Amino acid sequence: MKRILLISFCLLHLAAMAQPALRARDLGISFDGIPGKFNAITDVPGVLVGYKTLISGSGKLVEGKGPVRTGVTVILPKGKTNDGYPAAWFSLNGDGEMTGIPYIEDYGMGYGAIGITNTNSVGIVKDAIGSWNVKHFSKGEFVDYSFGLPVAAETWDGGLNDINGFHVKAAHVWEALDSAKSGVVEEGNVGGGTGMVCYEFKGGSGTASRVFTIDSVSYTLGVFVQANFGGREELMIAGVPVGKEITDLLPVYDETGRKDGSIIVIVGTDAPLLPGQLKQAAKRITHGIARTGTYSHNGSGEIFLAFSTAEPSYNNEYSTESWKVIPKWLLDPVYKATVEATEEAIINALVAAKDMEGINGNKVYGIPKERLKEVMKKFNRLR
User: Fold this and answer.
1) Is 320 inside a domain boundary?
2) Residue at 8 is within a domain
3) Catalytic one of 262, 308, 343, 344
4) Catalytic residue among 146, 300, 340, 343
5) Is 300 a catalytic residue?
6) Which of 234, 302, 343, 344 is catalytic?
7) How many helices, marked H, and strands, marked E, lie in the chain?
């Protein structure tokens, strides 16, 4: 009988794990704009997302052994290639890291995958993306440039994770790259967002998208966030001061406390934009974050990257480069989509994330879904 009960419990547990995490719209929360099919950055044709999530151990921190609550996320703007794409970046607050940005700043192009992980694993993620490029794209010349200048960014998960244990390995990055796919994107406690905290609720990975039309042509813009920022009292959801309404369920930390957090945001679109126009879109991410309540804390690294999958064309000799782009005076729909999708991606990360206990019994609670619905209803903001 005990064996039957145990099997039944395991089956129920596996079934629960197989269920997709709830998203903000599943709770009846309304947002402006029209989302794409998956309401994810993968709605942009050709864009893939891959994860490797690392969760093991419990109890007292033993450096190098755990507990482990971390991972890596990869976003591939041009699929499993190292093809170029127009790109630009913007730093709202530079208390963080994103590699590869000098080249993007000067030449307006990125190449290959974008990685997001914890603060101490940026180096290994950058190098692993580069070595994966060499394996897949090297032409066998004595010297080639297939390694590239990979983009890798971070937020700090040391409140829950053995961050000085360096648990993210090159093999994990390769696994994320090899498994990257289109379609539905997992959110919450996954990939680089596994050990992250947002508005003193459990945070992590989140995404959203918008479809818009310019001069009768339909375009898609998607946003991916690794959300690890903000104080509870600041949290706003669809204009409602949720952080002032749900003041309990604060994180439980040992005497070391928690370092201030950060947010990395990646915007992708199939709209044909110049690097300078992508820079303007990256700046608008700031407004989307602000809609969720934060004023951007001193220690919060807030670094953004925007890319377009619409690359320039070349003549037969590759001696001239031609761009077909949307003119400046028609860019407002791009900016609007960026703000809307950024806001929703952050809230999706919050809603999808679940309670997590990490090092030394530190615990962070997921936002309580039923109470959130009650608060939204109180302010007449529930569908």
Assistant:
1) no
2) no
3) 262
4) 300
5) yes
6) 302
7) 8, 16
216 is known as an active-site residue:
no
Residue 303 maps to which CATH number?
3.60.70.12
Of 11-25, 220-234, 346-360, which gets the smallest average pLDDT? 11-25
> What value does the mean pLDDT of the chain take?
94
- Domain presence at residue 55: yes
Name the strand (E) or helix (H) holding 28.
none
Render 108-150 in DSSP notation, one character per residue.
Answer: -EEES-EEEEEGGGHHHHHHHHHHHHHHHH----SS--TT---
| Number of domains within the chain | 1
- For the cut 70, the answer to whether the pLDDT of residue 14 exceeds it is no
Q: Which amino acid is at 337?
A: A
* Residue 17 pLDDT > 50: no
| Gap between the Cα atoms of 135 and 267, Å rounded | 27
Does residue 41 lie in a domain region? yes
Task: Say whether pLDDT at 226 is over 80.
Answer: yes
pLDDT of residue 142: 65
Catalytic site residue 234? no
pLDDT in tens, 306-316: 999 998 999 99
Domain with 223 in it: 21-313+325-378
